[in-house]
Every structure is written in structure tokens, then in C-alpha cells.
TrEMBL record:
Entry's Gene Ontology molecular function annotations: kinase activity; metal ion binding; phosphoenolpyruvate-protein phosphotransferase activity
Entry-linked PANTHER family: PHOSPHOENOLPYRUVATE-PROTEIN PHOSPHOTRANSFERASE
Pfam families: PEP-utilisers_N (PF05524), PEP-utilizers (PF00391), PEP-utilizers_C (PF02896)
Binding-site list for Mg(2+): 435, 459
Keywords linked to the UniProt accession: Coiled coil, Cytoplasm, Kinase, Magnesium, Metal-binding, Phosphotransferase system, Sugar transport, Transferase, Transport
Name recorded for this polypeptide: Phosphoenolpyruvate-protein phosphotransferase
InterPro entries the record matches: PEP-util_enz_mobile_dom, PEP-utilizing_PTS_enzyme, PEP_util_AS, PEP_util_C, PEP_util_CS, Phosphohistidine_dom_sf, PTS_EI, PTS_EI-like
Cofactor(s) annotated in UniProt: Mg(2+)
Domain PEP-utilising enzyme C-terminal: 254-545
Positions of the PEP-utilising enzyme mobile domain: 155-229
Residues binding phosphoenolpyruvate, per UniProt: 300, 336, 458-459, 469
The reaction(s) this protein catalyses: L-histidyl-[protein] + phosphoenolpyruvate = N(pros)-phospho-L-histidyl-[protein] + pyruvate
One GO term describing the cellular component: cytoplasm
């Protein structure tokens, strides 16, 4: 029976397709004593055979769809299945302990994993631990007779339903088959949602119970509207045609917007503002150019680190940055140094478990502490500066001193490269993310030492409202138009302008039509967003008279009390 769910609209677009439940099955088992050792070993052999057949299929598929290098990990898994040391020890344990294969597998793999993980200075061994964990899961699933979901093997159109998706899961989704995704948890500014927007996969997050409902509904279709946040499980024929109509309207609307691709962004009273794009990898460049991006306002370099199995070398990084700078043909590219931590992890750079990772050891705090990693990145960037117009910015700056330290390290590396005769640009701008309330309050002091600011509303709102950006239970506190947030934003903009510096916004709020009416009134210079939002915002800005929104912004900051007040204020001025 059809059932409507309301979630958070996370990525525009509409889709109807079969549900694909991406949840890890229950792999718990009971330890049992056995009498027939040979039979138990045969059960294990059969699970090993089935795992091998499955892994060979996955490897073949990965080779065709992702690449030979990426498929190598499955070859390593197949080898573990035949490893005499590992498998031999499991069989020995079945014999010695007279216990079932599940218990022996779990014990032995646990021991192998802890031994490998204890080799803290050996990355290769740590990766083996991760491989053994994966292989154990697969063999266990065959012993227990349950299926492991595998999104890389999807070969028909589906809507993925998951509790949550890590940014790395989102990156692996095949756009040809994955028509949309729906999660139980998450917020609009969680990184999986941001990636869905750049991949143009419609998404609704924070539905709370989609996985439970789909699990009990069985084999059903799902209708997803990523613009309104509506999800229907097992839709009726009428509902399917309504969603399909909404999908067609959206495509038509996009065709209208596409006509603005080669125009610059000029308001009704003739003012030019720059609409830039946020990217995560050089592959996103095509999307930026297709959507008429006038700059890259945020290149999140952490994905370069996350997509790799070890720290990327200076040359690897140089190549990625050079590609983006050259591809933008002289338009500015603002690259943010590594922002690891929070919801972004590196398997090969284990950091201590933290109670509050969003408030912990992350971003510039790691860079200033692990300077070899930071200096490698800066050198790659400085070398790439020769190929375009580069801005560098540091994430999560809380104090003026942090900025000065980071800038001094940049300067040292710049001077060294220049002295060595490396071709570099003399016009690299060095700025910072404005995403911590302490920095926003003290923006006048920061404006004296930076070349520019880029306002990161995703974190600025999270920290100002004390509301985790990935937690749907507190997502009502994601309030970009709350006067408290707007006062900080205004302070940042005014402080920058007083010192003759430019200021942009690269948080998700920069691609929000209501917010942009207020920001134009405050005089924000540059707006950087998911590439897929650029044309929609360009079409909006063409309708706005900035002289009218100056007064509106003043009211929004000084008279309004709530987020809702400001939504009404903007809607009175313009039809959005
Ligand atoms: C932000 O915090 O607004 C931002 C742009 O950075 P990120 O989303 O990568 O934390
Ligand atoms: Mg941030």
C-alpha cells in the first residue's frame, strides 16, 4: 500500500524506480560445539567457494565500470580466501576447539586484524587488516545464508534506500542506474548530500524510517521528489504519473535555465556578481563549465586524499590542481587546503576516536600539527599557480594566530620554490574560510591579514546554533536566515569591505534563492554553490534590483526575530 514519507530535500530532481535496500544484514551467530569436524570444514569450504565466485564477478564488473587499478582490491580479497596461513588457522581451530565455522572464522580473523592493526607504522599491513575484515564479512554471510548488498553490481534502474551514506559510498554510485537515493538520517549540508548535488542524483535525506518501511514492504517501487522532500513507497499509478509530471516540469525548467549558460550574472539594475561552483575533484570541471560557472569558489581537496589509498604525492596533487586551473582558463579557482575530520576520514591516517569529531582535531588543526602533509600540499598548489588564477584558503580558522601561522608556512614554501627558479604566480591570493563564530565576530581583525574571506555557512550555522549538520533530529535548527546568522554574515562582509578585501560564500546557503536576495542586499561579492544550482540562481538574480534588497537586508538583520520572518520578508519582495 502506498505510503508517503517527508524528508529533507537534498538534491533536486524526480525519479521513480525499484527500491534497492542498502543495509548491512545481521551477521550475528551463536558459538556452537560440533562433533563432525569434516562436515564443518566442508561448510567453510563451500562458503569460501561461494565468496570466490562472488568476488570474481565483482572484480570483473569493477574492471569494466571503475577501472583496473580500483578492481585490484578484489584480487587481494580473492587471494585471502586461498591464504594457507589464514584459512589453515581457521580449520585448525575448528579441529582443536570443536567449534562451528562461524566461531572459528570470527576468532581467527579477529586475531589477524588486531595483529595487523598493531603495526602502526606500516600502512600496507593496516590495509590488509581492512581487507581481512571485508573478506570475513563476505564468508560469514555465506555461512549464515544471508546476502550482502553490493551497489557496484547494480545493473538496472533503482532508488537506493540506506540508513546513511558515507561520502565514499556516494562517490561510487553509478549515475546510469542509480536514479535517486533516500536515507534515514542526514541533513542538507552533510557531505553525502553535497555530493549527490554535484552528481545530479535526486536525493531525500533524514526520512527517519525509509529503510524500515521498505524492508517490510519487500519488492516495491519508490517515487522520490528531491525538490520537495516527498518520498512515496509503493506508489499508486496516479502517484507515479504525478511524480513523472513533476520530473518532466523540472527537466523543462532546466532547459530554460540552460539558455543563460553563456551569460554573466547581471542583476535587473545592471550589477555584476560572480557565480562560482564548489567542486570535489577535477572530474567536476565539466559540470562547472556546462553550467556556466564564472569561478571555482571552493575546491574541497580532501576528496583527493579520500580517493587514494595513501597520502597523495606532491606530483599527484600538482597534476590535479593544474588540471583545474588550466581548465578554468584564467577564471579564479579557490582551493581549500585539506579539511579532514568531522564526517571526512582517511583510512590510512588514523586519528584518535573523539567524542565530538566536529569540534575536534580536524582541518587546519591537523595541517599545522602535521606540517609535512601541509607543506606538500602547499608546494603542489604553488607550482600549479603558474597555470591559472589561484586563491588558497584555510579551513576552520578560529584565531588570527592560526591564520598567521598557516600563511607563514605558505610564504616559506613560496619563497623556496621561487628561489629554486620554479615558475609560480606572484598573484596568489591567500584567504580563509569564515565558518567558526569566533572568527566571524572578530572579522575586522582577520580582514587586516587575509586577502579574502569565504563564508562557510554549513559549519557557521552548525556551530552558531549548536546543531550537528548531519543530524536530522536537529535539522530544524539549520536556519540560514535567522537574524543571529545574518548578523555574523553582515559583520564578515562589512569588515572585509572596510579593508578593501572581497568576500564570497561557499556554504550551501550561497545557492539558496531566499538567502541570495538578502546577501545581494548586503553586498556579498561572490556566490559559490553546487554547479547544478548556478543557472537557477543566475535566472533569479536577473530579476533582482539591488537597490531594493539593501533595505530588505537591513530589515532582515535589524527588525526580524526569526528565520521564518525573513522567509516572509523575501517572499513579499519577490516570487520565489
Ligand atoms: C562550510 O562549512 O560551509 C563549507 C563550505 O565547508 P564544508 O561543507 O566542506 O565543511
Ligand atoms: Mg566547513
Amino acid at each position: 500500500m502506498s505510503e508517503l514519507l517527508k524528508g529533507i530535500a537534498a538534491s533536486d530532481g524526480v525519479a521513480v524506480a525499484k527500491a534497492y535496500l542498502l543495509v548491512q544484514p545481521d551477521l550475528s551467530f551463536s558459538k556452537k560445539s560440533i562433533t563432525d569436524v569434516e562436515k564443518e570444514k566442508a561448510r567453510l569450504d563451500s562458503a569460501l567457494d561461494q565468496s570466490k565466485t562472488e568476488l570474481e564477478k565483482i572484480k570483473d564488473h569493477a574492471e569494466k565500470t571503475i577501472g583496473t587499478e580500483e578492481a585490484q582490491v578484489f584480487e587481494a580479497h580473492i587471494m585471502i580466501l586461498a591464504d594457507p596461513d589464514f584459512i589453515g588457522t581457521i580449520k585448525q581451530e575448528i579441529e582443536d576447539q570443536k567449534e562451528n565455522a562461524e566461531a572459528a572464522l570470527s576468532d581467527v580473523s579477529g586475531n589477524f586484524i588486531s595483529t595487523f592493526e598493531a603495526m602502526t607504522d606500516n600502512d600496507y599491513m593496516k590495509e590488509r587488516a581492512a581487507d581481512i575484515r571485508d573478506v570475513t564479512k563476505r564468508v560469514m554471510s555465506h555461512l549464515l545464508g544471508v546476502n550482502l548488498p553490493d551497489p557496484t553490481m547494480i545493473n538496472e534502474e533503482v532508488v537506493i534506500i540506506a540508513k546513511d551514506l558515507a561520502p565514499s559510498d556516494t562517490a561510487q554510485l553509478n549515475r546510469k542506474y542509480v536514479k535517486a537515493f533516500v536515507t534515514d538520517v542526514g541533513g542538507r549540508t552533510a557531505h553525502s548530500a553535497i555530493m549527490a548535488r554535484s552528481l545530479e542524483i535526486p536525493a531525500v535525506v533524514g526520512t527517519d524510517k525509509a529503510t524500515d518501511l521498505v524492508q517490510s514492504a519487500g519488492d516495491v517501487k519508490i517515487a522520490v521528489n528531491g525538490i520537495t522532500g516527498d518520498v512515496i513507497i509503493d506508489p499508486t499509478a496516479d502517484e507515479i504519473s504525478q511524480f513523472e509530471k513533476a520530473g518532466k516540469d523540472f527537466v523543462q525548467q532546466k532547459e530554460e535555465w540552460a539558455k543563460l549558460k553563456n551569460e554573466s550574472t547581471i542583476t535587473a539594475d545592471g550589477k555584476h556578481f560572480i557565480l562560482g561552483a564548489n567542486i570535489g575533484t577535477p572530474k567536476d570541471l565539466d559540470g562547472v563549465l556546462d553550467n556556466g560557472g564564472e569561478a571555482i569558489g571552493l575546491y574541497r581537496t580532501e576528496f583527493l586524499y579520500m580517493d587514494s589509498s595513501e597520502l597523495p604525492t606532491e606530483d599527484d596533487q600538482f597534476e590535479a590542481y593544474r588540471k583545474v586551473l588550466a581548465g578554468m582558463n584564467g577564471k579564479q579557482v579557490v582551493v581549500r587546503t585539506m579539511d579532514i575530520g568531522g564526517d571526512k576520514h582517511l583510512p590510512y591516517l588514523p586519528l584518535p576516536e573523539e567524542q565530538n569529531p566536529f569540534l575536534g582535531y580536524r582541518a587546519i588543526r591537523i595541517s599545522l600539527n602535521k606540517q609535512d602533509i601541509f607543506r606538500t600540499q602547499l608546494r603542489a598548489l604553488i607550482r600549479a599557480s603558474h597555470y591559472g588564477s589561484l586563491g588558497i584558503m584555510f579551513p576552520m580558522i578560529a584565531t588570527v594566530n592560526e591564520f598567521k601561522q598557516a600563511k607563514a608556512i605558505f610564504q616559506e614554501e613560496f619563497d623556496k620554490l621561487k628561489a629554486a627558479g620554479t615558475p609560480v604566480s606572484d598573484d596568489i591570493e591567500v584567504g580563509m574560510m569564515m565558518e567558526i563564530p569566533a572568527a566571524a565576530v572578530l572579522a575586522d581583525k582577520f580582514a587586516k591579514v587575509t586577502d579574502f574571506f569565504s563564508i562557510g555557512t554549513n559549519d557557521l550555522i552548525q556551530y552558531t546554533m549548536a546543531a550537528d549538520r548531519g543530524n536530522d533530529r536537529v535539522s530544524y535548527l539549520y536556519q540560514p536566515y535567522n537574524p543571529a546568522i545574518l548578523r555574523l554574515v553582515k559583520n564578515i562582509i562589512d569588515s572585509a569591505h572596510k579593508e578593501g578585501k572581497w568576500v564570497g560564500m561557499c556554504g550551501e546557503a550561497a545557492g539558496d534563492p531566499i538567502m541570495d536576495c538578502i546577501l545581494l542586499g548586503m553586498g556579498l561579492d561572490e556566490y559559490s554553490m553546487s554547479a547544478t544550482s548556478i543557472l537557477k540562481i543566475r535566472s533569479l538574480m536577473k530579476r533582482i534590483d539591488t537597490s531594493k534588497v539593501v533595505e530588505l537586508a537591513e530589515k532582515a538583520v535589524n527588525e526580524s526575530v526569526t528565520n521564518e520572518d525573513n522567509i516572509q520578508l523575501v517572499k513579499k519582495y519577490i516570487d520565489i
